[in-house]
Backbone:
């Protein structure tokens, strides 16, 4: 039975946030009892705080009283996420709706969680920038809700989901402490707490501030409409477009029932007699755009499109989009109720799954319409029913369950963007083994030990999970048991599969034997006498799905072999990590070694879709999947990325791929006079605020440039100063335009072209840039500070240090001779201070001391990282935290 809220608590809440912002009348409570599903749950009290401090105070009061706390934005959720099913306090964040800062030099905006997505977009457009995530509800949904659900939207095919565009959050934890995860600078020390917070649906804490990554508006946009007489033909055209090496910004599909609803609501120009339409949009440079449109039209025509039109002016484009953006609301014109399902499947499964969904409509005698993100396989069947008819409600819910099961059986996921919430937690075991579900609960407990934050969401109940049987292990210590589980050689054990790796870690835990995890050892420090578990015997390519743009491999595969496997299909995993010729996939992911191409393509965190990993408990967990959109469960894969093998052994990884660019080119620019710092700074700001789209944009110290130039076979030489190196890729026309513009701007800033590298020379150059010799380190800072940090790093280090400064990322990498032990501590302290005073962090890559990670930020961040470490490695057999 629910305990009434004490008058004393109500009094404290009023004192904290103001009497007008504490709601307890029945009418007020009913307004916060539902979302866009059929679920309801009455809160005991609603509080509307106005600041982080007030949110923290509310959470502390709730904790003292043992009351559940549910955060809420606009309530547009389609999964029951903000419904207070166990009562307690609803914290409505709609008062916290300010745009706190727009920092264009650093390409960041800082916002409160109650700000409407479209309000941010509209405020940025006159300044020439955009925030890419655009959920269909963006005119009403809040950015806090977008973070909680890791929302997608039409443009995530090219630009990614919300997580790819958030660099930091401030969050109130379950004990009222305030956590800062990330910020304007990239790559904080410790575990990727930001990565696991994204999409956690308010079950880990309440986000009170968000730092968003911005990007310049594209130079040109073209929107196309392809009309089909067959839903299957339209579905095959989607795979055909991707298979042809084309990557539109959006690729949306709508079937005949949805077009009918849209045309009734507003004239969007859709042909109602057709069976399906594709809305396709490309954006970027104007150069080459006509050729892309032509290629897309050819693919659509080859797959049965009866009509194809395109629009470039804003008015015509808005008309085509009006129907897609308003489709969900337009359904109200043809049905009193609808249930919006949300699943994602590999693109290649679209024709079969769509056909099966239509069959389910016939089976349950219910109308169904489809409007969805076809480019990433994210389906949104609209099951239409009468809410006043209990039988129709039951049939609609049964059909939704069958759609969910159908998607998982087709290799898909439970939800692509709407979240698990209340509605799909009962299906979690369809997708995840119990080891994964226990791993999810462990993460929930680390953030929220008392389980008061948005309870009864995402995870199945604990008592539904079976107590795991301890693994059957041979008797004896690690050294004696290892030969029975793996090939052993020179103190290293080489398991052949995930289960053997898990057993090895379990033996180590049983015997309290510390072990290190290794691939080819390209990123490992001194291992001393510590036993090593090596993944290189697990080295298979498991699946290359070119039409779905995914690849799944075992962790011991070399990075070069991974790239060779996808290159055969005209694709690439767009990372350029150090020592890519010998590094393993697991090593790259475990160290988050991304390289300079992160400017355009992101890091491992942005490209990893799924993962299997062995835990010290002897279990193998599996998270993510092979769909490019997936918000099913917690992002444990993000936790493993950059964990340096301290939580478990990565055994399989699935990446998203990209089409190989038609043309690549590198320009190296030398200063005419002086060291070029001012010229580099001006050029960097100019390029990053423009429509140019570099893949990498690095300022290289003269020594590093000479080494990379020699490796690429060019005779160019610069004796001092900074050399900007910019990598360009895309269609031939795009690269030519960017090259001409970059050359012109460089000349205006006093820089000349020292080298122009293509094909093999281009690749050799960037490999030399990333393969810094000696001990390697990295400072992160804001983009605007990167040249200051790079220059200061050179001043505090010794002559001969090789430095590269990411002009678009704020990441400064360097290589140098190993200092004497006496000098190491002083140098580390200088570099840590240098990075931290610019809002960033310093790392040795890899950590210099065996079995240790880089220093953690102090306070709640470090405490939370240690709780997570204790959860997954309670015996401490894997590399430790500082």
Residues:
């Amino acid at each position: 039975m629910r305990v009434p809220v004490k008058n004393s608590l109500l009094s404290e809440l009023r004192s904290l946030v103001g009497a007008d912002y504490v709601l307890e009348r029945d009418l007020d409570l009913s307004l916060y009892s539902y979302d866009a599903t059929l679920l309801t749950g009455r809160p005991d009290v609603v509080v509307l705080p106005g600041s982080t401090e007030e949110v923290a105070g509310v959470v502390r009061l709730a904790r003292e009283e043992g009351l559940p706390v549910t955060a809420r934005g606009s309530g547009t959720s389609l999964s029951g996420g903000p419904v207070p099913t166990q009562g307690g306090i609803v914290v409505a964040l709609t008062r916290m709706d300010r745009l706190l800062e727009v920092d264009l030099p650093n390409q960041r905006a800082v916002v409160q969680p109650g700000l409407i997505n479209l309000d941010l977009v509209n405020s940025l457009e006159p300044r020439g920038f955009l925030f890419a995530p655009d959920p269909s509800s963006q005119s009403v949904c809040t950015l806090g809700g977008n973070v909680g659900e890791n929302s997608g939207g039409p443009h995530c095919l090219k630009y990614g989901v919300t997580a790819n565009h958030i660099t930091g959050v401030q969050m109130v934890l379950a004990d009222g402490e305030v956590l800062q995860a990330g910020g304007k600078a990239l790559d904080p020390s410790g575990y990727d707490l930001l990565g696991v917070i994204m999409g956690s649906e308010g079950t880990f804490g309440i986000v009170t501030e968000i730092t968003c990554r911005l990007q310049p508006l594209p130079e040109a946009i073209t929107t196309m409409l392809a009309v089909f007489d067959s839903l299957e033909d339209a579905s095959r055209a989607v795979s055909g477009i991707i298979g042809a090496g084309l990557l539109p910004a959006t690729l949306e599909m709508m079937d005949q029932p949805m077009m009918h609803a849209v045309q009734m609501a507003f004239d969007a120009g859709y042909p109602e007699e057709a069976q399906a339409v594709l809305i396709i949009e490309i954006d970027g440079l104007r150069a080459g755009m006509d050729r892309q449109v032509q290629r897309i039209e050819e693919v659509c025509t080859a797959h049965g499109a009866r009509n194809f039109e395109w629009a470039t002016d804003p008015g015509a484009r808005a008309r085509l989009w009006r129907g897609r953006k308003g489709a969900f609301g337009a359904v109200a014109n043809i049905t009193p109720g609808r249930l919006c399902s949300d699943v994602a499947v590999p693109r290649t499964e679209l024709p079969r799954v769509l056909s099966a969904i239509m069959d389910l409509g016939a089976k349950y005698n219910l109308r169904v319409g489809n409007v969805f993100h076809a480019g990433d396989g994210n389906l949104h069947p609209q099951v239409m029913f009468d809410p006043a008819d209990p039988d129709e409600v039951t049939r609609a819910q049964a059909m939704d369950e069958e759609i969910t099961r159908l998607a998982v059986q087709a290799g898909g996921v439970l939800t692509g963007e709407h979240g698990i919430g209340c509605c799909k937690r009962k299906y979690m075991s369809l997708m995840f083994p119990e080891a994964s579900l226990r791993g999810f609960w462990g993460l929930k407990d680390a953030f929220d030990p008392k389980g008061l934050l948005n309870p009864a969401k995402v995870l199945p109940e604990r008592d539904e999970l079976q107590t795991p049987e301890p693994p059957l292990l041979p008797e004896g210590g690690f050294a004696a048991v290892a030969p029975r589980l793996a090939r052993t050689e020179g103190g290293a054990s080489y398991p052949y599969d995930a289960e053997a790796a898990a057993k090895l870690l379990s033996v180590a835990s049983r015997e309290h034997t510390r072990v290190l995890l290794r691939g080819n050892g390209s990123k490992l420090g001194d291992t001393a006498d510590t036993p090593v578990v090596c993944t290189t015997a697990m080295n298979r390519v498991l699946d290359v799905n070119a039409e779905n743009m995914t690849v799944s491999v075992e962790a011991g595969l070399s990075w070069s072999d991974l790239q060779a496997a996808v290159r055969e299909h005209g694709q690439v995993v767009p990372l350029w990590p150090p020592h890519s010729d010998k590094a393993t996939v697991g090593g790259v992911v475990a160290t988050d070694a991304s390289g300079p191409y992160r400017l355009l393509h992101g890091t491992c965190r942005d490209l990893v879709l799924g993962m299997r990993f062995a835990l010290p408990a002897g279990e193998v967990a599996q998270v993510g999947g092979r769909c490019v959109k997936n918000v099913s469960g917690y992002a444990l894969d993000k936790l493993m990325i950059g964990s340096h093998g301290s939580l478990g052994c990565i055994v399989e990884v699935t990446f998203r791929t990209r089409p190989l660019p038609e043309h690549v080119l590198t320009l190296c620019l030398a200063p005419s006079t002086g060291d070029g710092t001012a010229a580099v700074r001006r050029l960097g700001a100019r390029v990053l605020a423009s429509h140019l789209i570099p893949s990498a944009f690095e300022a290289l110290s003269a020594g590093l440039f000479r080494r990379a130039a020699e490796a690429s076979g060019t005779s160019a030489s610069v004796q001092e100063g900074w050399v900007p190196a910019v990598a360009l890729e895309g269609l031939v026309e795009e690269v030519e335009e960017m090259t001409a513009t970059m050359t012109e701007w460089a000349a205006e800033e006093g820089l000349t072209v020292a080298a122009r590298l293509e094909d093999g020379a281009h690749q050799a150059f960037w490999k030399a840039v990333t393969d810094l010799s000696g001990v390697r380190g990295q400072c992160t800072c804001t983009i605007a500070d990167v040249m200051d940090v790079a220059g200061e790093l050179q001043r505090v280090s010794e002559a001969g240090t090789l430095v590269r400064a990411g002009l678009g990322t704020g990441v400064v990498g360097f290589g140098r001779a190993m200092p004497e032990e006496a000098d190491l501590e002083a140098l580390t302290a200088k570099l840590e201070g240098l990075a931290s005073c610019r809002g960033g962090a310093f790392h040795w890559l890899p950590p210099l001391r065996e079995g240790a990670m880089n220093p953690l930020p102090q306070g709640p961040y470090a405490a939370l990282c240690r709780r997570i470490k204790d959860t997954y490695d309670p015996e401490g057999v894997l590399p430790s935290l500082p």
In short: Residues 545 and 551 are 6 Å apart (CA to CA). The longest helix spans residues 390-409.
